Amino acid sequence: GWSVDPGVRVGAEYKRSPFDLYVDGQRVTEPRVKTGFLDAVLGLGFGYGGLVGARLKIEATESDEAATIEDWSGESQSFFSLSGILRFDSWDRAAFPRSGVALAAKSEWSLGALGGAGDDFSHHVLDVDAAIPLGDRVSLRARGITGTTDGADLPPAYQFFIGGANQFYLYPDRHFPFAGLRVQERRGRHLQSAQVGIQWEVVPSVFAVGRFNAAALPDEWRLDVDDWFTGFGAGVGLHTRFGSFRVMVTGGEVADAVRLEMDLGFPF
Q1: Nearest C-alpha neighbor of 133 from the set 199, 89, 196
Q2: In 54, 157, 210, 228, which residue has its Cα 20 to 30 A from 70's Cα atom?
Q3: pLDDT tens digits along 181-240
Q4: Would you say 239 and 207 are in contact if contact means Cβ atoms under 8 Å apart?
C-alpha cells in the first residue's frame, strides 16, 4: 500500500579500500582510504520502497599520501555532517528489472570539524535509474546521474569516480559505472552522466544486454557538449537464486582497449 510511517535508523560502518588514481589513462598510484562513521536517520517511509528523511553523521576518514596527485590530500579528517535524503524503488526485481524506477538523492553539508581540517564542504547527488518495458521480454534501460561538490575541505574520497561496466558497491553515492573506462579511471568534483540500453530476456532468467553511456566531469559546474565523452558495452547475464552474473565487452571513445568485465553475486 501507500501508508506513511515514521522510522528511525542508527548505524555504524567501517571500510578500508584502495583507490586507483589515473593520470592521462595511466594508473600512477593506489592510496588506501580508511573511513568510519556513526549515523542516525530520522524519516518517513512511504509504501514499500520510499523514504524521505534527514541523516546526522559523525565521520572520520584517513588516506595514504598520493604525492603525484595535486587534488589528493593524505590528511586525516573528522567531522559532523547533516544530509537530506530521498529514496524510491519500484523495480519489479533487484537484478535485471523489467519495469520500475529507482531514485536516490542526497544533499550533505559538513557541520564542523572535530579538530583539524574538514569543516567546509558539501556533496550533492541525484541518481535515477529506470526500466521501461517495450514488450513481454524487452525493456529499455535509462539512467541519469548528476552530482556536484563544493568547499575547500572536501575529503578526496568524496570526489565523483566513474569507470567499469558494473556498479561499484562500496561507495554507491560517489562511484558510478561507465562502460569504456576502467574502475575509478576518471574523477572530479562535478559529474553529469547518462546511460541508455536494451535488455532482452532471451529465455527465462537469461538476458542479452547492450548499453551506450556518456559523461562529463567538468572542472566547474557547467553544461557544455565539448566536455562529454562516450563508451559502450554489450554482453549477457543470468539471474539465479545464488545471485546474478553478468559479462560484458566494453569499449568506446576514451577506451585504450576492448575489455571483458564480469560481475557475480548479490549487491550489498
Answers
A1: 199
A2: 228
A3: 999 999 999 999 999 999 999 999 999 999 999 999 999 999 898 999 999 999 999 988
A4: yes
Q: How far apart are CA 165 and CA 266, in angstroms?
A: 16
- CA 241 vs CA 49, 162, 202, 214, 265: distances in Å: 22, 29, 18, 33, 10
Cα dist from 24 to 70, 84, 213, whole Å = 14, 36, 20
Handedness of CA 53, 141, 158, 219 (dihedral sign): negative
Cell of 60: 572520520
Using only the alpha carbons of the chain, give its radius of gyration.
19
The predicted-structure confidence for 137-191, as pLDDT tens digits, reads as follows: 999 999 999 999 999 889 999 999 999 999 888 899 999 999 999 999 999 999 9
Please give the model's pTM, rounded to 2 decimal places: 0.92
C-alpha cell belonging to residue 88: 524510491
The phi, psi pair for 226, rounded to 5°, reads -70, -15
Tell whether the model's pLDDT for residue 117 goes beyond 80. no
Q: What is the pairing mode between strands 32-46 and 4-18? A: antiparallel
Q: Which helix (H) or strand (E) holds 267?
A: none
Q: What is the dihedral of CA 222, 226, 228, 230, to 10 degrees?
A: 170
Residue 24 has φ and ψ, to the nearest 5°, of 55, 40
Residue 119 has pLDDT above 80, yes or no: no
> Would you say residue 71 has pLDDT above 60?
yes
Distance CA 240, CA 255 (A): 31
Cell readout for 47 is 509504501
Q: Is the dihedral of CA 15, 123, 107, 161 positive or negative?
A: negative
